[in-house]
Design a protein that fits this description.
The chain is of the alpha/beta class. The protein has 18 helices and 26 strands. Among the domains are: 118 residues, Roll (Diaminopimelate Epimerase, Chain A, domain 1), CATH 3.10.310.70; 234 residues, TIM Barrel. Strands 8, 17, 18, 19, 20, 21, 22 and 23 form an 8-stranded mixed sheet that branches. α16 packs across α17. 29% of the residues lie in helices and 20% in strands. About 3% of the residues have low confidence. A hairpin with a 4-residue loop joins β11 and β12. The structure holds zinc ion (ZN).
């Protein structure tokens, strides 16, 4: 690459104009606003030098340095090239040989931040004793009569430290830690919760209480309640005691909080896959207040019918279409759920769960999938359908292929959320239609104890990043946070090693390289929101979204990539995290 002089920088205007897409009219889904383009002829706001810059730009994959102005990369190249673009006012970041990547993009998650703000975080607890300590701490600053709530508990990850064995938490464990407040510990996967004796007492539930319709209480062999309540049985606890208040202020604070946590992990863009009207308001308020530390691509929630689908109904009726918004907050499309869950072991498959005759469940049948896809597609909405099992995925493909055949739209890129269990026919159909799958990128690592029920053979076709790439499909990264961990370094480790937390390997045929993992987490994520021309790589003319890492994921032992610290995260020229 040739050197840039200040004079020549004036001349870069032409190249930048190309990158910014001058010559065509702006497009709502991908254009860069006119007024934010850098003014030519002045020095850079920031230069980064002496870095190992993994640009994820095929035409110049490695660089030492780059320059940023008005929130955009304006040049990428060697230290000498880039130093020419600085003056006395330019911030100079000396990367000192550290690796720098584009900002990471999480294409499927649910970051509201409210429970992270109000409840005790049990996500990383690995023993029952640790959970007790965290809940006791939370109770110490909770007023009497108010609930102590945890989140992120997963029974398949927690052992009793006294025996070293996996077991579920009980009301007696909770009583020991928190005797005087009501306690609820919901399972990370939803559907079930555990309560302490105080909560049972306040709800008037005892050993003689019958199981309610559509619900169940957990009992010991002697018939005593053990604290577990499933499905509708949880409803008996709703109206007793004081729950933390959740209103507009808490929701807005939640966005500030969770976007800060995600920025600290290196994330600069997220796709909210199924938001409520209250969530959309909170995002707008946090954005307006300058507190939102990620770019948000927002899917309204569609169905199935019994889901809360107010957001899609109202936006569609208001005449909103996919692509409405700006580079920080944009309406993406509508999200439907067509089958069960991967980690909850209820996804709809053509072969049964190991040792059972259970094939999982469909939440929407083929006809309902056809109708939902047709309605959204014909109304100008981008469709995203949750489909984990191969049966559900083929139903969705049938619908996408049908609508595109009958009412063709230019490059609709309808999405298959999760797209967990694939086969060669599914891969071919996705490649041919240019549909976007969003497989879980941390699950193979964090949920290992659940995969035994699928078995080794199925795991060779699950979260199939390698297969997608081999079929030319630009597969992006997706955490499904809160159900999964969102840290991109954990995701890279998971995709590169295919190992769970106990070192067991699931589907080694699906391994990808570190470079491929970086591309999945950045440029492919941009493609999943029609933004590959404006973000996802360190390229002159794109948004200056970048991350500096303490260590190079190419160099460290693959089994400890997840320990790599993120030193700095920048979004459009603003620092969203600095360690
Ligand atoms: Zn989800």
């Amino acid at each position: 690459m040739s050197s840039y002089t200040r004079g020549e920088f004036l001349g870069i205007g032409g190249a930048l104009a190309g990158a910014f897409g001058l010559g065509g009219w702006p497009r709502a889904d991908r254009s860069v606003p006119e007024q934010t383009r850098p003014a030519p002829g002045t020095a850079a706001d920031l230069i980064l030098v002496d870095g190992r810059v993994y640009t994820v730009d095929g035409s110049s994959p490695g660089a030492e340095a780059f320059a940023v102005k008005d929130g955009y990369f304006i040049a990428v190249g060697s230290n000498d090239d880039i130093r020419n673009l600085a003056d006395a006012d330019t911030e100079v970041v000396d990367a000192a040989g550290r690796s720098v990547t584009p900002g990471f993009i999480d294409c499927h998650c649910h970051p509201t931040g409210v429970r992270e703000l109000l409840s005790a975080n049990l996500t990383k607890a690995r023993t029952i004793q640790e959970i007790q300590r965290i809940l006791a701490e939370k109770a110490a600053d909770t007023p009497p009569g108010h609930w102590v709530e945890g989140y992120g508990y997963d029974d398949t990850k927690v052992v009793d430290a006294t025996t070293g064995r996996y077991r579920r938490i009980t009301r007696w464990d909770l009583d020991e830690a928190v005797p005087d407040h009501p306690v609820e510990v919901p399972h990370r996967g939803g559907h079930i919760s555990w309560y302490n004796s105080k909560a049972l007492e306040m709800a008037g539930v005892d050993g003689d209480t019958p199981d309610p319709e559509g619900g169940r209480f957990g009992r010991t062999d002697e018939g005593e309640l053990n604290g577990l309540a499933a499905e509708s049985a949880r409803g008996l606890f709703n109206d007793v005691g004081q729950r933390p208040e959740v209103g507009p202020e808490q929701r807005r604070n939640g966005i500030r909080h969770i976007s800060g946590l995600m920025a600290a992990a290196g994330i600069t863009s997220v796709h909210q896959t199924g938001g409520t009207p209250e969530n959309l308001t909170a995002l707008q308020e946090a954005y307006a207040a300058g507190e939102m530390r990620f770019r948000m691509y927002w899917f309204a929630r569609g169905g199935p019918e019994h889901y809360d689908h107010r957001s899609y109904d109202a936006l569609r009726e208001a005449g909103v279409r996919s692509g409405f918004g700006d580079p920080f907050l944009r309406i993406a499309g509508v999200k439907y759920s067509t089958d069960g869950s991967n980690s909850g072991r209820s996804m709809a498959m053509s072969t049964p769960y190991r040792g059972t005759d259970d094939y999982g469940i469909l939440q929407m049948d083929q006809q309902e999938v056809h109708e939902a896809a047709e309605e959204a597609h014909r109304n100008g909405w981008r469709v995203a359908m949750h489909a984990n099992g191969d049966v559900a995925i083929e139903n969705v493909l049938n619908a996408y292929e049908r609508v595109q055949r009958l009412w063709p739209r230019e490059d609709p890129r309808h999405r298959i959320e999760h797209c967990t269990l694939v086969n060669p026919r599914i891969l071919r159909r996705i490649a041919e239609g240019n549909w976007i799958p969003t497989p879980f990128w941390t699950y193979v690592h964090i949920h290992g104890n659940k995969w035994a029920e699928y078995g080794e053979e199925k795991s060779r076709w699950m979260w199939a990043h390698r297969s997608f790439l081999d079929h030319g499909i630009p597969v992006p990264g997706a955490s499904d946070y809160g159900a999964g961990d969102f840290e991109p370094m954990t995701a890279i480790q998971a995709m590169v090693t295919r190992k769970d937390t106990q070192g067991r390997v699931w589907g080694p045929n699906q391994r990808v390289s570190v470079d491929e993992a970086l591309r999945i987490g950045t440029l492919n994520g941009a493609y999943a929101s029609f933004e590959e021309d404006v973000k996802g790589s360190i390229t002159a003319g794109k948004y200056a979204d970048w991350v500096m890492l303490a260590e190079d994921p190419h160099d460290v032992d693959p089994d400890r990539i997840k320990e790599i610290k993120v030193l700095r995260t920048e979004m459009g020229g603003r620092t969203t995290h600095e360690a």
